[in-house]
Write the structure tokens for this entry.
Amino acid sequence: MTGWTVLAVTLALATLAGVLVRRRDGVVREARGGVERLTADDLQMELGERATLVQFSSAFCQPCRATRRILDEVARMVPGVAHVEVDAESRLDLVRSLNIMRTPTVLVLDASGRVVRRASGQPRKADVIGALGAAVGE
């Protein structure tokens, strides 16, 4: 009987953990911690005039492809917004300094390069547009 109880509790906890992870996946949040600022030199690409969408990806990441399409589409819709994709495997220094734990991770930068929003996992298009509103001050 004890074995079945342990099994039931383990399954319940695993299910709860899975639900919590799924609910947080791709949600755009306000950037926490110290004020992080990225420059064109950090990204090895130019920043957007109004905002920049920075995507950390890896070669075999399926959600990264869908995220790339979403961010490209949003960047084309909003004037002055650039989409920069960073290969996480080749830029481990930047990944470590920004505490990137998984791909895709999306950072939304304002015009000065300050990180204002962050999403771990594939964000929804509407959430990206909302985060851009916060970055450009609208």
